């Protein structure tokens, strides 16, 4: 078994799922993959099951009933990863907006002293390809808003391309992480920093999907906007000391 697990949540990703799986398995470093599928009606899970015959030891599938949200998919994946003794746990999208080759760069940064490594679109300018300008501006200024409200210094607070050391996910009480969209990504970074973990950003180039449909919605945006304020207020009443 590999020491590194890439968690990929899916909902209707049949155009991308086989390609992303094969790309990860083609890398020079051995990664295992966990697909967390939220009952995709387009047959995403069936494609994964067929590929499991080819990769029986390294490709894993967890199926959930219904579209339950990105945050809960990752929490499900985190708990599975801890149960199965992985040392490095990754978040990555299925749609190639995150370049799988950057997994190795995130892993290297973790092995060189970081506890949580963020693949950042904004640490060196704006490295986004094929996104409409309104999405770029919304994402960029959302991170500025997070820095203003929370005081954390992360340049790409909503980033979803991340490597965690096992100890981070063992320490954070995952059952208390409640947000499901972009606010989930913000909450995980904020909480890791509050616990004193070393969180670093490395530059990546983010490329908008060319196949499938974006899951972004106004509900997710509202959750992030108002959730950041609530998260900061709640932090005044939480004990972030590790046992």
UniProtKB/TrEMBL annotation:
Tree of life domain: Bacteria
GO BP field: glycolipid biosynthetic process
Family the UniProt entry places it in: Belongs to the glycosyltransferase 2 family.
Positions of the Glycosyltransferase 2-like domain: 6-171
Organism listed in the record: Albibacterium bauzanense
Keywords: Glycosyltransferase, Transferase
Pfam families: Glycos_transf_2
GO molecular function list: dolichyl-phosphate beta-D-mannosyltransferase activity
Record-given protein name: Dolichol-phosphate mannosyltransferase
InterPro entries per the UniProt record, alphabetical: DPM1-like, Glyco_trans_2-like, Nucleotide-diphossugar_trans
GO-annotated cellular components: membrane
